[in-house]
Design brief:
The protein is an all-alpha fold and 66 residues long. The chain has one domain. The chain is 68% helix and 0% strand. The chain is built from four helices and no strands. Helix 2 crosses helix 4. The protein is elongated. The relative contact order is 0.20.
Length: 66
């Protein structure tokens, strides 16, 4: 499982779209691993984890805005 700190290193605001999160996450991946067909499942798992953390951050921000 990928940590919340990995999501924080993406430096995206909670108002960012899911596409922006995926683009930021993709830029953090080593270029050799980014295009390796054998690592496709790993990349998708990483992207899903970053989107889950992004949704959690959005929920937290919405709860504190009252």
């Amino acid at each position: 499982m990928h940590s919340f700190s990995a999501y924080c290193r993406l430096n995206v605001p909670v108002s960012a779209s899911h596409r922006t999160v995926i683009r930021a996450a993709s830029s953090k991946i080593n270029p050799r691993a980014r295009f390796d067909p054998d690592r496709r499942g790993d990349r998708h798992e990483y992207f899903r984890a970053m989107l889950d953390h992004h949704n959690d951050a959005r929920d937290l921000a919405a709860r504190h805005r009252l």
